[in-house]
Amino acid sequence: DAEITQSPRHKITETGRQVTLACHQTWNHNNMFWYRQDLGHGLRLIHYSYGVQDTNKGEVSDGYSVSRSNTEDLPLTLESAASSQTSVYFCASSYLPGQGSYEQYFGPGTRLTVT
Amino acid sequence: DQQVKQNSPSLSVQEGRISILNCDYTNSMFDYFLWYKKYPAEGPTFLISISSIKDKNEDGRFTVFLNKSAKHLSLHIVPSQPGDSAVYFCAASALGNTPLVFGKGTRLSVIA
Fold first, then answer.
1. A39: closest chain B residue by CA
2. Could you please report the per-residue DSSP string of B52-70?
């Protein structure tokens, strides 16, 4: 069965460290997204990609970067982790319009703690 | 500026009764609306959607209503069950390949 996975599921890191969160999908979706979920803020878009070599900034992109070298993966990098980046991170993917429905399929999330 | 608003952070309903979750939006370009359900320690899962050409979409116990003139949609769950207890997110998309915009969510508690 097609799926979307995230690793690690839990991560504790120190302020100033570089951290990379992995996202892998086997749906063959062109679109991939990264969100963070914080109490009182819901789901906020960090970065997204519409295909290989395409990346775009979302609402809360400062301090984060992504790269898309293949269809299946969109790793999220925190260049220099800050305590404000303590959050739960969700990766999602979807079809292009016309290829399928609009809904995004979400991964199980990564809980990141920056100490 | 919040484009998708869920003004009720929480809602408590008795088992068997109707749950009504509300969502308002400000962007008139939105033409597709979705509801997601999220359990603790899991990713959100798609529940039901509606396009702007419809005013109602039904799937089992779940019905979504869209009032375009009021820029308002609602999710009705009838009858509510304890397993429906979760956080519900409303999301909207504009025409074309644009990212979904999510509301802050409403935590539904269904009491047995």
1. B104
2. TT-SEEEETTEEEEEETTT
Chain B residues near residue A108 by CB distance under 8 angstroms: 41-43
3-state helix, strand and coil shares in percent for chain B, rounded to the nearest 5: 5, 55, 40
B44, two tokens:
């959100």
Using CB atoms, pick whichever of A42, A102, A105 lies closest to residue B49: A102
pLDDT tens figures, A63-104: 999 999 999 999 999 999 999 999 999 999 998 766 666 789
Query: CA-CA distance, A13 to A35, in Å (whole number)?
Result: 19
What letters, b where the CB count within 10 A reaches 16 and e where it falls short, cover A58-89? bebbeebebebeebbbbbbebeebeeebbbbb
Query: From the CA of B15, how many Å to the nearest CA of chain A?
Result: 26
Residue A81 CA to residue A18 CA, distance in Å, equals 6
Q: Cα B67 from chain centroid?
A: 13
Average pLDDT over chain A, rounded to whole?
A: 94
Judged by DSSP in three states, B92 sits in: strand
Structure token digits, residue B13? 């309903």
d(CA A106, nearest CA chain B) in Å: 6
